[in-house]
């Protein structure tokens, strides 16, 4: 079991090596993302991995993570499994930021 | 049969990230049949109770989401009339030749509407080899699998200027609008649109980003099959969004979840019988929670915010 720490809050949650980080975050209720498609398509769980080893086990939509960003450690948490303790931080895409501001439902 | 020139949405092409894994879901969990593959590797599928060649095409891509939706017109004269009305409405129409990118389909007229979605319209399509029986027919030929989806039912699209999209569906397709939801200042927030007795063939929600799909809906026989679908979601560790529940809007019995590439799917049963002469049902945005999820009366953030 690895420890995933959220940089902004300092809180951490446990995550096994055979589960995606998002599933563990939702289960623990200790992170900024509470839901998502869990299939790499919707982009809601986009975050930056600042430190630690991980493995990408699913395809991440290029609508939400570009090749360059992927190289820089930006991931969709539903597509990666930990291979060590991780330090993660929020990384809303420009698109998601604008949607949160403009969306009619508020 | 439709009340107007268009019969129903008959074909959808979706983008998927992992073709094999996602196809396995559509065939073995949702219960569709694979009809064949195109020369460029796309997969054609249909539900067991559909007559036409195929109703869903999956295309492997690096983004999930919707390529286009296509509506079946009642005949060739209507098809040409719709094309002319579309041009007069102000949209640029292109022609996709028969048997080009969609084997079995006649020519399609294609155009982009205000919400950024590509709509096609066609009237000719081959019958499927494995369609429902028609001579002293049994209820099915081979036992339905998994969630036992009977047919493509509807889709909910997110994009800008849905008021224009609604007007297009009424004026060009001749559809009608059984149900709407308005913001406090009277603007359209959501609209449910149909060409037949179904409460919706398609729906729109106002959204700043163009061309998004909220969900693709398939029809099930009854409430028991919605429960059966819930079992299949759990058994296969699919991500549930919400349900089983009932909508007050459309009165459908429903459950929502995500397929392996992150496109949201609804399986749905029931719904009221829509008639074009019935008064329109109107929802205030403040009551939308109750309209969407009648039992809890509350919307959940994932349902409103997540699209592909």
CATH class of the largest domain in chain B: Alpha Beta
> What fraction strand of chain B?
35-45%
CATH homology superfamily of the largest domain in chain B: 2,3-Dihydroxybiphenyl 1,2-Dioxygenase, domain 1
* Named CATH topology of the largest domain in chain B: 2,3-Dihydroxybiphenyl 1,2-Dioxygenase, domain 1
- Based on secondary structure, the structural category of chain A is alpha+beta
Approximate strand percentage of chain A: 25-35%
Helix count of chain B? 6
Question: What do these coordinates show?
Answer:
Chain A contains three helices and seven strands, in the order ββαββαβββα. Chain A has 106 residues and is of the alpha+beta class. Chain A has one domain (2-102): Roll (Ubiquitin-like (UB roll)). In chain A, strand 1 and strand 2 (12-15) form a beta hairpin. The radius of gyration of chain A is 13 Å and the shape is globular. Chain B is of the alpha/beta class. Chain B folds into two domains: 6-122, 2,3-Dihydroxybiphenyl 1,2-Dioxygenase, domain 1 (Roll), CATH 3.10.180; 151-305, Roll (2,3-Dihydroxybiphenyl 1,2-Dioxygenase, domain 1), CATH 3.10.180.10. In chain B, 19% of the residues lie in helices and 35% in strands. Chain B has six helices and 17 strands. Chain B has a nine-stranded mixed β-sheet. In chain B, a hairpin with a 7-residue loop joins strand 11 and strand 12. The model of chain B has no long low-confidence stretch (mean pLDDT 97). Classes of the chains: A alpha+beta (106), B alpha/beta (308). Chain A binds chain B through residues 34-42, 44, 58-63, 95, 98-99, 102-105, and chain B through 17-18, 62-65, 183, 189, 205-209, 239, 241, 258-264, 285, 299-302, 304-308.
